[in-house]
């Protein structure tokens, strides 16, 4: 079956799942999104793409931003980034503060909140406006100059960021942050509030499937080795506390967000983004994980 | 031996210990105090007092302020205070964040930092300026209108308060603080920076030995029962992670601070304050604990 | 009011509380005891005693045995005991394993299970049969040669001791136990199963109120200083996670057990034992704590 | 470059690393193995194999046994196995007991010690002698009837198994083990002590690269889906607290042991086993990880 047909079939078969799951409501703005949305976009290096459903509807990328912020920080610091943040799975969320204490304030990886705050600190120390730098980076990666963050979502994030502020001050007390906590939290809330659609996100992630180079522009984002490092991180840490299950069911490096989006790549082949706001108990898009599982099953293409 | 002679003998015998211990240096201002200071003041309900050494030299009361802030909050909320903060020992410092998480952000007692922040939150929600209210309360308790906080120490505290900010935001994320974290931290840093001498502090604590009434003014600070409650708290939680050892060696309800001061009371009899900046490994004044141990041994008066 | 009348009044007023609380049922044998029992015995150094209710009915002393096992270990090791076990409050039960890990397997005090296992290990390394040595010690302390452990309760304990075994092996892995775990657990289960009545227990604890000497026999159990140390431990660690509240409400050094017994002493005066099987949420006898609170209130005698 | 030459080159280039690392010495028997050993064997489905160095020297497989014990338990219980043990990464070792407590005694995955004990419990409940069943299973998988466990290593394991006993009793207290702890620990110690060489181990793991079927015998060990599940587990949890780094550097599903062995598979192609006793700070073979990294680099074959 070719990919166009696979996506059509997924779109058809996924319908019964769309009412299921639970839309994230820890910030009011996210809770307003209808859970019946479903979109999917798959992009090849030669520019060919397939889209179904709401692939053109923008949504809040949330934690998917951690992947691109980490990429940008990697560009700046190279391997020195790992002096600031680890690259190992973290176990469950419960332990975050215990682990931070035990490991002297160094987060386990850049995809948990504590680690993403360190990454944002890196960006804030290098750019006058970290969130603008990230937005411009995203625009360049996907070729869409209209990409921006949603000011209302960002504001809503800021109003519910006390847990993140606690972690930031805790790391600051260990000397792990260089910039003022307020600045870091502000930039972090804005980057979580970036709005993009499936097509843009799939395109933005394509360099990860293409050895670190954006195919259509030829821009080298990262060398081959750091690109592989990011894929390895996505595999082991990209889907909250369900990484083990996700690797088994889907078998692709991926990064998810509580807005219901998931970006995944098949190294050497394509990138994909799926979006559906209903989340499973791990915080990953319920329909999204299912769609990706069907994608690798029907195409018989995964890392295994 | 009468108390005047006891204090003289303590002052003489304590000399070899004065170079020992380690002056708190987590904020630079505290680190500047010479560790050879030693002062002690004992005050009776009838106004009689005995002083030796540097009993008239002001020092930073630090955590001793938690005792008086808690008294003031108790005046305001009565038993409802215990809805906001517990009254049990906390085990070691390491656990503070774990315990906060496990107990949904409710601190174990008002004498650990997390609990003192909740107490300060109570004061901030009732007074326009919590720190001014506390300073005025202290002035009234000891009868010295010149008592104030040291602005430089307060500023130094604020610059090194990231761990406290982390705890405050963490509790805020559980809905445990009513006021803005910045305001609470600011008031907390000021109250820690209150400067007093041994004589003033012993006098300020006298109501605890006198059923809740300030003897010379007749002002009722607390009823008898809450006064006993505070003494019980001082006994089980007043000296950091050395409460068990302190109860054994000294046998008095007490509250210590990293400035090197310790306030203690013998219910029904007298209050005492001792000060010497060198700290033992638990953060209590090394010479101060020894002096209090000698006081209860030589006078044969303790709670036992 | 004299003590005879105080105990009569307590016995009368406590009746409405006797159906309340929850009888411990983690081992089946304990769960069979009717929750309507109530007994109380108060003993003076001159041999005078007052008893009310079921003061002559034997019950399972459970954790109260920790007090006497610790006394015996103190006799053997003296201050060296504190190399093996700490003497500070432990915070809540939840942390026991975390704290054990953090503190390299050294328990915080001899009144939590981990600490009591270390104490039992000390006894096992010195006596051929630790539980027999303890039983004989108890007989001598209270003058009743019929004291023994209940074999059925001991068996029931052994069948539900997996958590204690886990802690014992954990400490063993840190090199904190000298004897085989099986032997330690067996002795521990037997000592918990010792059956005594209020009168015997009050008498057995009298040395704690009498400077370390058993008044009627003149036997010196401990010197004055270790006796004070034990009282200090009872004050800060004797009543599970309610030590702070107990000190406030009752104001006496005490040790409780989940069998519903509580032993307390007023240094220099008397010892008391109260028993009622219904427990409050902290695991202390609900009616027992109330009875002791009334005792110190009506007699106006407490450590404060 | 063909695989024969790749292995020769690895064998040549690895020499300077062989004195490095630290041989596991938590049990005396392991500590006796010279750290200069190095062996490597790569096996294809058609029977072709390449060996270099000490590929025929038997060593203690230690935690590699967890992979095969888990396979056997999977055969018995199917997907029900995941009711007993999770399948997600666990963060660092420090947290094992905290996580066990937080997750009511259910281990995070079958490759940490707690999880492996649950797997062994499954085997003990189904086989009269779990360790014999596992040995026979290993013999069948690799076709070598001489495979056995080393009785002296097993005895040494048993003498140093207190931490594992602690975990077992802890899980037992949550009702997570069906069989007596002694029996489970005994079987566990024996399975860790199985001695095999690189060639045998590579052959034994070949079914994982071949859709669950042993190529030369045609025996179906597992269906394709559970086979993929095991590979996913190896990827995210197979190399202690270095899974993230290992996925990046090597990019193969793998399972390591403190005896210095590492088994890895390239799904659809081959299996490999490398052995060198010197360990890095994560407990993985230092030279072994390097050899596997060179293998995937030189062959340009990994999951990415």
Automatic annotation (TrEMBL), chains A, B, C, D:
GO terms of molecular function: glutaminase activity
Catalysed transformations (reactions): L-glutamine + H2O = L-glutamate + NH4(+)
Enzyme Commission number(s): 3.5.1.2
InterPro entries: Beta-lactam/transpept-like, Glutaminase
Keyword Ion transport set for record: no
Broadest EC class assigned to this enzyme: hydrolase
Binding residue positions for substrate: 63, 113, 157, 164, 188, 240, 258
UniProt KW tRNA-binding keyword: no
Keywords, sorted A to Z: Acetylation, Hydrolase
HAMAP family per UniProt: Glutaminase
Family, per entry: Belongs to the glutaminase family.
SUBUNIT field: Homotetramer.
PANTHER family: GLUTAMINASE
Name of the featured protein: Glutaminase
Annotated organism of origin: Cupriavidus basilensis
């Amino acid at each position: 079956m070719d990919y166009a047909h696979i996506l059509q079939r997924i779109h058809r078969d996924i319908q019964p799942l769309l009412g299921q799951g639970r839309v994230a409501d820890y910030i009011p703005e996210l809770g307003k999104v209808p859970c019946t949305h479903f979109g999917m976009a798959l992009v090849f290096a030669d520019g060919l793409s397939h889209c179904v459903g709401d692939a053109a509807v923008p949504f809040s990328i949330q934690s998917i931003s951690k992947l691109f912020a980490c990429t940008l920080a990697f560009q700046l610091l190279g391997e020195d980034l790992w002096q600031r943040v680890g690259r190992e799975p973290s176990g469950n969320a419960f332990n975050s503060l215990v682990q931070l204490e035990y490991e002297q304030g160094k987060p386990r990886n850049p995809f948990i909140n504590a680690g993403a705050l360190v990454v944002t600190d890196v960006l804030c120390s290098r750019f006058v406006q970290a969130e603008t730098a990230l937005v411009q980076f995203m625009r360049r990666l996907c070729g869409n100059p209209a990409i921006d963050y949603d000011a209302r979502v960002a504001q809503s994030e800021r109003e519910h960021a006390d847990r993140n502020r606690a972690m930031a001050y805790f790391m600051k007390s260990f000397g792990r942050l260089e910039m003022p906590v307020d600045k870091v939290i502000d930039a972090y809330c804005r980057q979580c509030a970036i709005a993009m659609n499936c097509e843009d996100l799939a395109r933005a992630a394509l360099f990860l499937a293409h050895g670190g180079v954006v195919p259509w522009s030829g821009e080298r984002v990262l060398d081959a080795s750091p690109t592989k490092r990011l894929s390895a991180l996505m595999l082991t840490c990209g889907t909250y506390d369900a990484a083990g299950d996700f690797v088994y069911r889907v078998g692709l490096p991926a990064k998810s967000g509580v807005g219901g989006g998931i970006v995944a790549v098949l190294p050497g082949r394509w990138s994909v983004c799926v979006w559906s706001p209903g989340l499973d108990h791990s915080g990953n898009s319920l329909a999204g994980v299912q769609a990706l599982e069907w994608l690798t099953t029907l195409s018989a293409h995964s890392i295994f």
